[in-house]
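Exercise 7. Given the encoded structure of a 228-residue chain, write a plausible sequence.
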């Protein structure tokens, strides 16, 4: 569903990604771990078609991102470290803006926004300016923004950041439903327990290369034992 083949990325002389290949299939939630500065966010940005790799390619649903980038972006739901929300607009206005960006009709946007705001617990704050939301509430809105157009592929960079236990439960529920509907998700985390029972595989990024294994292995790899 989303595939990277031989992706290289350098910042100056520093090699961040050294020929990274991965494939996340329909119905899979895959966890991605690695030490700070390993290149996880860079990889997510490349898969989200926000950064162009130096070499290698990204395919989404079999289509080459170099040819169909603009259209394929609409097939992706992306959570980055930045919320990508407009702080001077209200919660509803932000979702209306993104609905237009994703090519949804107004009625469809309003219907979907109502469902998602209820789900993430922001329904009482629909008409509040984003500047007045707490960090965790912004993260909840960021999730609603990423899921608004019901994308088949989710790329989530530390999506649990700022969420309380209830919010984390909501996110896990949304991910489970996405997976059960045949969607694909790649999720960066520093705490594999956040994806317990959800992630079917784990990828560890270290020194520009990916390795793959089950959850316990990912934890040990993260701690630096037997990662190579
Ligand atoms: N625009 C940039 N300018 C300079 N260096 C960059 C830039 N983007 C990424 N890097 C470097 O690339 C490396 C990978 O960064 P990245 O943010 O992808 O790591 P990460 O694994 O997501 O880290 P963390 O766990 O801390 O979020 C780092 O050494 C970082 O300094």
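Solution.
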């Amino acid at each position: 569903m989303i595939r990277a083949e031989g992706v290289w990325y350098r910042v100056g002389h520093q090699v961040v990604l050294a020929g990274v290949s991965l494939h996340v299939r329909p119905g899979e939630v895959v966890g991605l771990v690695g030490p700070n500065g390993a290149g996880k966010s860079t990889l997510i940005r490349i898969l989200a078609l926000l950064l162009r790799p130096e070499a290698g390619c990204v395919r989404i649903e079999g289509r080459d991102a170099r040819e169909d980038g603009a259209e394929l972006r609409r097939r992706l739901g992306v959570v980055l470290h930045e919320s990508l929300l407009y702080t001077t607009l209200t919660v509803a206005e932000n979702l209306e803006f993104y609905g237009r960006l994703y090519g949804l009709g107004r009625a469809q946007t309003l219907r979907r926004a109502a469902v998602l705001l209820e789900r993430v617990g922001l329904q009482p704050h629909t008409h509040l300016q984003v500047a007045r939301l707490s960090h965790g509430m912004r993260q909840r809105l960021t999730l609603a923004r990423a899921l608004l157009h019901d994308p088949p592929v989710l790329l989530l960079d530390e999506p649990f950041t700022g969420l309380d236990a209830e919010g984390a439960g909501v996110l896990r529920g949304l991910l489970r439903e996405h997976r059960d509907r045949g969607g694909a998700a790649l999720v960066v985390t520093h705490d594999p327990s956040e994806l317990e029972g959800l992630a079917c595989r784990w990828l560890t990024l270290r020194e520009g290369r990916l390795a793959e294994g089950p959850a316990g292995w990912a934890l040990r790899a993260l701690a630096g034992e037997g990662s190579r």
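Remark. The two ends are 27 Å apart (CA to CA). Students should compare their own answers with the one above.
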